[in-house]
Amino acid sequence: MLDYVNASVISSMEGVIGIKTYFVKDKRPFISFNRHFKEIFQSKYPEEYNFEPGIHAIRAFDSIIVITNALNSIRGNNRSPSMLLKSILLSNFTSLSGRIHFQSRQLWQSPLFSIVNVIGKSYKELGFWSSKFGFTENNKSINDDGSDDNMEALEDLVTWTGNLKHTPKGRVMLTNTEAMRIGVPSKTAFEKFVKVEAISNSTEKRYSGFCIDVFEEVLKIVQKKYPIRVDYFPYDGTYEGLIDEVFYKLYVVDYVWNGTILKTFDAAIGDITILANRSKYVEFTQPFIESRLTMIVTAKPEAQKAWMFLRPFTKEMWVFTSAILFYTVFIVWLLERQSNPEFEGPWRNQLATALWFTYSSLFFTQRERVHSNYTRVVVLVWLFVVLALNSSYTANLSSMLTVSRLESSVTNVEWLRRNNAKVGCDADSFIGDYLVNNLKFKMDNLKKIHSEYDYPSELQTSNITAAFLELPYEKAFLLENCNGYIATELPDRFGGFGFIPYATKQTNTD
Length: 510
Known about the structure:
This protein is of the alpha+beta class. The chain folds into four domains: 2-157, no CATH class; 180-288, 3-Layer(aba) Sandwich (D-Maltodextrin-Binding Protein, domain 2), CATH 3.40.190; 295-301 and 406-493, D-Maltodextrin-Binding Protein, domain 2 (3-Layer(aba) Sandwich), CATH 3.40.190; 306-402, Helix Hairpins (Orthogonal Bundle), CATH 1.10.287. The protein has 14 helices and 22 strands.
């Protein structure tokens, strides 16, 4: 958004490092679009001072092109929403914002970001970053193997506040002998992420899990600049209560309950999901793992059916193969009936001979003599088609026979809601409220599960028809219970797992 900020505002941001979506500006399509855009925008909004199109205008233009092309590709009057969506997902062309191609209903090409550094009343580009290739100083070498996953190569190019060329240390934290109090949720359903257990013959606790490992790796980096000491403290309440504890520390320091001073937490770590309502009270770090809603249901192996040998090909493919076969039969009969004595007699015998001749080429067992060179060309083409079809059919059938497929009676969320089915979710998670408030499940149909080890028994005994979990938990569940379950990723996305850092809303930390 720097392109739309007043110059006086930018001057107060000197030294700031940010990102902006990169798109090519020196190609003819953008130059033409830019000229027309500025003419129309300036005529409608003459009071504005910047008429350059930004990434949002570029994406809006590309969206219109995609929809227009999709509508034009649909023939007839059958322009239903499903047909339009299918046509949109088949888009494959290069536009102003880059390659427009969808894979798994998402844009195939990840966006490329330019790293910018504010200097004076403007900014300069330091380099580029993409999720696939990491950091690079030149967008032309984004596909090279020399791209790096860290930004150390760009540090020398940054101009900091005060025209400094070296990286400032930031606000120095007060040297305090007291260690930071880190709150850790102890009632987690999935112990692979956070686990708090007592040490025998000791009052201390042992903290482990993926989230703890991530935090300690981050802590090692931060301790190179700041003399930080931390102490972990288990928290037996809900995640909302843990967030409140950090919030009280930020604004109340320590609070009194029934005459006793309660020590709150300086920060909180664990499998804490970033949500909009939580961000109103505390700030979060960048998410370190993706989070979205998933649904797990029981499933049984698909029954072997007598007509399975037809399933490697679709109905359309069988029709196409049959059409090619009979077309070849007709051409062979047409070319051989005049000169080949094998094709003499009633027309039924002639067609039967042509059919047998063509079909036997599948196994290379035909012994009929071919008299016409044109027939040899037709048979040669037919053999190549048969070779491709045979390879594809064998591979698909082998996959169906060796890889067991699962089927479930549960189709989607609407089916569960319509049939008042019982569903399960983590007891201390926000998912229960989300299912009631957003997906409109009845509270009576929700069952709170306290441990990951209870989900299999609840599902197998039909106490619950489906389990709703966040994506990281779903992966952990299927890692241990890979047989007999189907997981479906729903479109509901969350902010991911993040930590609540020290001194949130008071100081800027590295």
